[in-house]
Automatic annotation (TrEMBL):
Pyrophosphatase that catalyzes the hydrolysis of nucleoside triphosphates to their monophosphate derivatives, with a high preference for the non-canonical purine nucleotides XTP (xanthosine triphosphate), dITP (deoxyinosine triphosphate) and ITP. Seems to function as a house-cleaning enzyme that removes non-canonical purine nucleotides from the nucleotide pool, thus preventing their incorporation into DNA/RNA and avoiding chromosomal lesions. Belongs to the HAM1 NTPase family. HAMAP family: Non_canon_purine_NTPase. GO terms for cellular component: cytosol. Pfam families: Ham1p_like. It catalyses: XTP + H2O = XMP + diphosphate + H(+); dITP + H2O = dIMP + diphosphate + H(+); ITP + H2O = IMP + diphosphate + H(+). The keyword Metal-binding applies. This is dITP/XTP pyrophosphatase.
Length: 197
């Protein structure tokens, strides 16, 4: 029975990965289960680079298979920002509200059709006897002028998915998980998981 460490302490994220790995009989652990692993500094310029840095560093320390992700919001009118700085866009202190306010102020006066954006997720899988692989997934949408919905987190209240007519924050958790950039990236990771099992 193989074990994979998911490079997160986020329970919600871990659950998504558990669903995917369970059908291959792979046990999922998170960083909560291996507290001896230090925080890995993400110094990459792209989501892929950050995911690889995390996955390879933790695989080396733990001698295990590791899946790491890096994800964020990419807004076309802002030349791809907030990008890899999505979590701390408004400053070193993580604040969803401040990040949203900053994006809305930077997009003031930008027309609806020019507010295209996507949530982007890069996943890297690394381990003792495999070559590191990265895959990605996206969820396309538009940035609204104001917040809508009480669910989700991060930029969800201003990220509208036109095909659904709703923001990510207005969707059920189940529907959001089906459409998410992470779900898309996981689908692309599946062939590599099959090889592992």
């Amino acid at each position: 029975m193989k074990t994979v460490i998911i490079a997160t302490k986020n329970k919600g994220k871990a659950k998504e990965f558990e669903r995917l790995f369970s059908k291959y009989g792979i046990i999922v652990k998170t960083l909560v289960d291996v507290p001896e692993i230090p925080d890995i500094e993400e110094t990459g310029k792209t989501f892929e680079e950050n995911a690889v840095i995390k996955a390879e560093a933790i695989a080396k320390i733990s001698d295990s298979y590791v899946v790491a992700d890096d994800s964020g919001l990419v807004i076309d009118a802002l030349d791809g920002r907030p990008g890899v700085f999505s979590a701390r866009y408004a400053g070193e202190e993580k604040s969803d509200e401040a990040n949203i306010d900053k994006v809305l102020s930077e997009l003031a006066g930008v027309s609806e059709e020019d507010r295209t954006a996507r949530f982007y997720c890069a996943l890297a899988i690394a381990g003792p006897d495999i070559e590191t692989v990265t895959v990605n997934g996206t969820c396309e949408g538009l940035i609204l002028n104001e917040r809508r919905g009480a669910g989700g987190f991060g930029y969800d209240p201003i990220f509208s998915v036109p095909s659904e007519g709703k923001t990510m924050a207005e969707m059920s958790a189940e529907r959001k998980n089906e459409l998410s950039h992470r779900a898309a990236a996981m689908k692309n990771l599946e062939p590599y998981i099959e090889k592992l099992s």
